[in-house]
Amino acid sequence: MSEQQQPTFAIEKIYLKDASLEIPNAPQIFLESDSPQVDVSIHTQAAALDAGLFEVVLTITITSKIKDKTVFLVETAQAGIFQIRNVPEQDLDPVLGIACPSVLLPYAREAVSSMVLRAGFPPVVLQHMNFEAIYQQRLQQMQQPQQPQQGDGSPPAASH
């Protein structure tokens, strides 16, 4: 009998795939005294590259506003190539959606903080993110039946 091969998880490469910074209201925005509202959104994406090799991209978008004026907009796409072998098919999605983004987060955190600081603002330090909770929430949303909403393109109910 052949011995069951052990699961493999290895980081092959970590790189900054894309980064952008916009300060559309500079230099006037630097004269504002109000505290900005900061909004953070995250998105992960995984793609198979070759047998056992996957690219995972963690995209973080941070928008800072004072009233209706954008203070800054930062977006980073931190990526990694991961070797994942001998993992059961049902366990592959959680590895790509939880373990890989957790590895990428510190790199994305540093990229965001550095860009915001170089733009002349106090650094934004991203807090730890629980990718397992985010993954579970995404699964729950996918399992809920889709409810038709107003304006969804369906014909209006006939009225007499």
Relevant terms:
single chain; 160 residues; alpha+beta; Bacterial Protein-export protein SecB; 4-stranded antiparallel sheet; 2 helices; 4 strands; elongated; disordered C terminus
In short:
This protein is of the alpha+beta class. It is 27% helix and 38% strand. Helix 1 (89-118) packs across helix 2.
User: What number of structural domains do the residues give?
Assistant: 1
Q: How much of the residues is beta strand, in percent?
A: 35-45%
Q: What do the pLDDT scores average to?
A: 88
DSSP, total strands: 4
Q: Can you characterise this structure?
A:
The protein has helices at 89-118, 131-143, and strands at residues 8-22, 37-50, 53-66, 69-85. The protein has 160 residues and is α+β, with helices and mostly antiparallel strands. A four-stranded antiparallel beta sheet has the order 1-4-3-2. The protein is elongated, with a radius of gyration of 21 Å.
List the helices and strands and how they pair.
Layout: E1 8-22, E2 37-50, E3 53-66, E4 69-85, H1 89-118, H2 131-143
Antiparallel strand pairs: 1-4, 2-3, 3-4
